[in-house]
Amino acid sequence: MGKETGRRRTAPTRSLIGPLVMLASGMAVGVLMWRSLMLEPASGGGHRTRLEQLSRQDRDALERVLSAHP
After folding, report:
1. Mean pLDDT in each 10-residue stretch from start to end of the chain (70 residues)?
2. How far is it, in rounded angstroms, from Cα 45 to Cα 20?
3. What sign does the dihedral 19-22-25-31 (CA atoms) show?
């Protein structure tokens, strides 16, 4: 068997850095999107967003529908 002489072939540094940069930037974008969608309250023109509430008649109708189907 011959003795191997010469440089050992390895991947260039730029082929390792590129995917790591893409992965890190994708993670950063994902965190920013998650934060903007989940943590920050919805802007409603400067006032608090009011939750939708059923009227008394709607609640009574819903009770009738739910009690009719056990």
Report:
1. 66 86 96 84 57 85 84
2. 40
3. negative
